[in-house]
Design goal:
Length: about 140
């Protein structure tokens, strides 16, 4: 397994992995988003490969606005992490989180954060195993007017 930064060559692979994480997203919009991320210093995307196959990705951003449970700014923030099911429990997610943490440290961050949907027990467990501490639970509401 090797980890490679996002480049114009692997944007389709990143978009495919992101689509597996966010199935309600649109592939073409994800390609556009990843293309845009190549032009900013405030985001890091890395892909993990086994041979020639892209098997996982992480997207970490710098968030300067308030991040729940933190007291510094900016904060390295995991916007998304995904490992294909056949490759889970092989330390790939851990390697991607560590790459994100190293990037955040290089950008001057002293804190690292993430969020998980309440029902995603597997992701909650993963984050806890990576050393994250739960700081809050939120239920969001909306209604049409």
């Amino acid at each position: 397994m090797h980890i490679t930064p996002l480049s114009s060559n692997n944007i389709p692979a990143a978009a495919s992995l992101a689509l597996a994480l966010w199935p309600d997203a649109n592939y073409d919009e994800l390609v556009t988003e990843f293309t845009t991320l190549l032009t900013t210093d405030n985001n890091m995307v890395s892909l993990a490969y086994k041979g020639e196959e892209a098997i996982a990705f992480v997207h970490v951003s710098l968030r300067s606005e308030y991040v729940e449970g933190t007291s510094t700014s900016p904060v390295g923030y995991v916007e998304g992490i995904y490992v294909k099911p056949d490759f889970r429990h092989q330390q790939i997610g851990k390697a991607l989180i560590q790459a994100g943490e190293e990037w955040a440290l290089s950008k001057g961050c002293t804190e690292f954060a993430s969020d998980v949907e309440l029902h995603n027990e597997a992701s909650i467990h993963f984050h806890e195993s990576m050393g994250f501490t739960e700081v809050n639970r939120v239920v969001l509401f909306a209604k049409r007017l």
